Amino acid sequence: MAQENAAFSPGPEEPPRRRGRQRYVEKDGRCNVQQGNVRETYRYLTDLFTTLVDLQWRLSLLFFVLAYALTWLFFGAIWWLIAYGRGDLEHLEDTAWTPCVNNLNGFVAAFLFSIETETTIGYGHRVITDQCPEGIVLLLLQAILGSMVNAFMVGCMFVKISQPNKRAATLVFSSHAVVSLRDGRLCLMFRVGDLRSSHIVEASIRAKLIRSRQTLEGEFIPLHQTDLSVGFDTGDDRLFLVSPLVISHEIDAASPFWEASRRALERDDFEIVVILEGMVEATGMTCQARSSYLVDEVLWGHRFTSVLTLEDGFYEVDYASFHETFEVPTPSCSARELAEAAARLDAHLYWSIPSRLDEKVEEEGAGEGVGGEAGADKEQNGCLPPPESESKV
Asked: Phi and psi at residue 302, in whole multiples of 5°?
């Protein structure tokens, strides 16, 4: 019994050690990984649409302006070359001359006509005539290419504006994870919440343990990823995220923390990455929010403060207490030692109850006197009396 009591004793508290570990995923969800020495840069051009969407806003706006300006300048130069080649610029005052484009008297006029053609403004001052077949072909070509440029650039800007990255900013994770007892078992827990009234549809949660490991063959894996079960088998990983929820990872025999005690956990070096995914209710687009916890951000023996209260006709969430925790009695041993202590305690209770029944039966038999078949036929220890044939023998 001394070992069982020692397992539940809080033990001396040690201050968490300062860690110099580099985060794999930042607290705001940004992945702290940079791609270097990429020689096959042509692959970015094969997916030009995604490349433009992934650009920073200032570069996207610059490319947006250049795409239209260069297109207008290109076709404006061609219109000017057609007018120059046909001699329209030399017969500006000749009323009997039929130019390719009326009132096109220079490069600026050709540039303005290119803008009017591609944007379908059509002020009516500069008009193409039917005596210029090359101009008609160029007009058709510019109308088609202009529509393609409009569709491509407007599509890029629309996707960039409506992408759900900013929606993830209103999905919050607790600043710390905690380890405490739940239904007599050690659990690693963190809290998630949604600040908006429009909810995340089909929300699901995942957790990854990032820790270096070495194989039996001596191979070193610097950022090995291990799944932490948060209810995939039972469906608890699918969330109805209307109010803040506490996500729990039960530390069982399949958990990588099965043999980790409080002291071992504080001396360990790992990172827990949590990923929340779902569809934005307003747009139907998939959204992903990420965060991470280092070793010194995991509080042993703590529990989250409740943030949900019942008001007059509704529930109110107090996000001022979203990150707050409080200490609770928690064993400092590992989950394996806790399970073994509980098993020994159950075994002791199991064997102590029949022994007490035996003592009671013996006391009753001694009170009734020595001998007698009635005393011999009594049930002892919950067992049936011997068969009649054996007793006669």
From this structure: -125, 160
CA torsion sign for 293, 299, 301, 305 is negative
Q: What is the pTM of this model?
A: 0.69
Averaged pLDDT of the chain: 83
Crossing angle of helices 57-86 and 133-162, in 10° steps, is 180
- Give the strand pairing for 177-182 and 298-300: parallel
Residues whose CB falls within 8 Å of the CB of residue 257, separated by 6 or more in sequence, listed in order: 186, 188, 251, 265, 334, 335
Distance in angstroms (rounded) separating the CA atoms of residues 333 and 337 = 6
Give phi and psi for 34, each to the nearest 5.
-120, 135
Spell out the alpha helix ranges (H) of 220-334.
262-267
Q: What angle do CA 213, 216, 218 make, to 5 degrees?
A: 70
Euclidean distance between CA atoms 193 and 322, whole angstroms: 8
Span 220-255, pLDDT tens digits? 998 999 999 998 888 899 999 999 999 999 999 999
Reported as a single tens digit per residue, the pLDDT across 24-39 is 999 988 888 888 877 7
**CB-based contacts of 256, cutoff 8 Å, min separation 6:** 209, 211, 226, 228
Contact status, residue 135 vs residue 166, Cβ threshold 8 Å: no
